[in-house]
Amino acid sequence: MYRNGRPRLFWSLILLLALVSTLCLYQLATTTLHSALQQGVLSANVNQAAISGGRAKGGTFNRPSSPAPSYSPTPSYSRSAPRGYSEGYSDYDERPSRPYPRSYYPSYPAPAPILIPFPAAPGPTYIPSPTYAEPVDDGLDVGFIFVLLVLGFAVLPIVLNYIRLSSTKSEQTGADQLNELANDVVTVTRLQVALLAQARELQRDLTTLAEQADLSTKQGLSELLRETILALLRNPEYWTHARSSSQTLKTREAGSRLFERLSLEERSKFSMETLVNVGGQVRRQTLPTSDADPAAYIVVTLLVGTADDYPLIGTVRSTSELKQALQRLGAISPDYLLVYELLWTPQDERDSLSREELIAQYPDLVQL
User: Where is the composition biased (Low complexity) (predicted)?
Assistant: First the structure.
């Protein structure tokens, strides 16, 4: 019996181990499937929420073509044209231009000389009376004048040097600006600002600006940039997160490629662009009815391409740095502004962007 019991005990242990392994594998598979389903539901919720986006873009990195000079041919006149022929000729055109003769100017009689009587010399019996010269005080202090001259010679070189340095600096600044506008070096800047959803007025202002902006001219593009920055600066109490980057590129083609890559990266976070204004052409789409939770955040993205040879802004980590960055972008001259694109989500007030969706879609935002 002892010998027959050992094989049975061995096979019983094997069956028990197989049963335990099967139970462990089943539990592991169940847990994995449950987590995968949860992740799928979360991603589906992220993709379904915050689907509306607004977009306004204008400008180009291409160098503007200079207008062709207008040429007006000089009319040729014939000396043999008759005086009465009025088509293309006039009495003034027929007569050659030559100075008027001297007889034209009226001749005035030369003024007579003025004779001043001079007293005759005194005779031998004339005795002049003695005269006494009294000292006259003219009020001039020679020492004071000398001190003024010394101070003048001492201060004059300093004043002249200051004027020369100021004029040289202004000339260098003007030359640097002309060089920046003439070369192909460009700078692409991205600034993102996340705000609390209570800033509904900002959402409406951006919609109005995108609908009414004139993006076909540099002045209209610059005005859209300034108005967008003013709308953000008027709501500092709602700022929560920010992100900034500014990169200088050596060619306009490279700047255009980087700008389009950043634009596609931000636009891919929208499921639907409910308001678009590109080059002055406005297009709208209706947002489907959604039972999403009330919005928690609004994200505004500014993409700016300029003719600057150096980065415009640095890293933003506080509200003061964000304010400085916005003011710097708002001070861009229309001559330097090449391309500007405004993006914001959600565009529709019925849409929602929760905190989880903000973290999932914009993981590089820095909390202020």
Answer: 73-82
Q: Which amino acid, one-letter code, is at 164?
A: R
**What angle is formed at CA 269 by the lines to CA 263 and CA 274, rounded to 5 degrees?**
85
Which pLDDT tens digits describe the chain residue by residue (368 residues)? Answer: 444 556 667 677 777 777 766 766 666 655 555 444 444 433 444 444 447 899 999 999 988 665 444 444 444 444 444 444 344 444 444 444 444 444 444 555 555 555 555 455 555 555 555 555 555 555 556 676 767 777 777 777 787 777 776 655 555 455 566 777 889 899 999 999 999 999 889 999 999 999 999 898 999 999 999 999 999 999 999 999 999 999 999 999 999 999 999 999 999 999 899 999 998 889 998 877 665 667 799 999 999 999 999 999 999 999 999 999 999 999 999 999 999 999 999 998 888 899 999 999 999 999 99
| Domain-embedded: residue 292 | yes
The token pair that represents 29 in the structure block? 């598979």
- What distances in angstroms separate CA 256 from CA 129, 181, 218, 340, one per listed residue? 102, 16, 17, 12
Residue 241 lies in a domain: yes
CA distance 94 to 102: 22
124 in any annotated domain? no
Domain that holds residue 262: 52-61+180-367
**Which among 300, 304, 315 is positioned nearest to 368, based on CA atoms?**
315
What residues contact 22, with CB distance under 8 A and at least 6 apart? none
Asked if residue 347 is part of any domain, the answer here is: yes
> Is the Cβ–Cβ distance between 191 and 305 less than 8 Å?
no
- Residue 85 is given by DSSP the state -
Matching residue, tokens 């950043």: 262
Residue 52, strand partner residues: 272
Q: Which residues of 185-214 are buried (b: 16+ CB within 10 A; e: fewer)?
A: bbbbbbbbbbbebebeebbebbbebbeebe
Q: Is 309 exposed, middle or buried (0-12, 13-18, 19+ CB in 10 A)?
A: middle
Give me the number of domains the chain comprises.
1
